[in-house]
Predict the 3D structure of the following.
Amino acid sequence: MGPPASHVIETEVGDEISLYDPKTEQVTVMNVVASDVWRLADGTLTLEAIVDLLATAYSVDPKDIRSEVATAVETFRLAGLLHEEP
Amino acid sequence: MWAGTLPVRLLGTTFALTGDSQEPLDLAEALLGPFVERDARVPPSRTLQLVDERETTRRVHLFRGECLETSATTWQGIVTKLVAVLNREALYRCRPFAVHAGVVAMGERVVAFPAESGDGKSTLVAGLTMAGATYLSDEALVLDRDGTVVPYPKPSALDEWSRRALGLGGGDGEVLFAPGELGPFEIERTSRPSDVVLMERGDEPDLTSLPPSAAIAALLQHSFNQHRNTAEAFRLATTVAAMARTWRLTVSDPIETGKLVMDEFSS
């Protein structure tokens, strides 16, 4: 899953990341969890691997954050923020 | 035959206001004093004419060239509409980034309240100004390319409810207060926003901290002109959010809410 599309501009403020896509002129403002998902969406990890990593980091059960992680990933895909294989 | 010309400059756009009577120009100058262009070498970008119909039914008009912008039955009425026209055009043309917001300064702090019309920012800003804050704008947070605030102390427009709530008397309709009438104001400042305060209505005034992402979202959502250069707007919004503290302000009674804000941001 991932990596980020090369044209996307990323700015980190505090613990949160905001993204600007110059192709669509859309801005995506993310909370802390979505920002962590974005950081892990480097093209080497599956969705489940990201869920497991964040569950460990947050000391929660994976099932408690799977939905939020999946939503974040789907948002990235729909917005064209991730590199898509041709 | 024009009685005179009043040149004004708002947010970089120069206007020449002409009238076939001196009265409306005097009214306009009383409201727009800080914006009167003293440099005679600066040519106007726009010319607006204030014309008395001089017929049986008293009508006064505001023209832009041959085009009728608006009309009223009194000079006071047409000057009130003139200020709205100037404001709209100045914000349309200003660069690089302007956000629909009230802005005040308290000492070194510059506090911005991004909000839409009717959300209470003008009333809150007027109350804060009357309590000793420095009025920077009740309409727009305007930022220079390095994120520095460009004060825009346009005349404050307060409706009947706001005036009563602030103890400014009653009367009908909207009344304009010239910069300086309610309290101190500034036309120049060299600092960046220190606080971004998002407003919501509630039963009791309250102030809670928010993450910077809330400021980024609010600044972009309330922007007048981010569509002109979205990349630049994004850069400035994130720059402000990185340097400023972000808050949620629950607004109820404007006097009580103003006291809370003054206590928090003046300390």
Q: What stands out?
A: Residues 75-93 of chain B form the longest helix (19 residues). The first strand of chain B starts at residue 4 and ends at 10. Helices of chain B lie at 22-32, 75-93, 121-130, 160-165, 212-221, 230-243, 254-266.
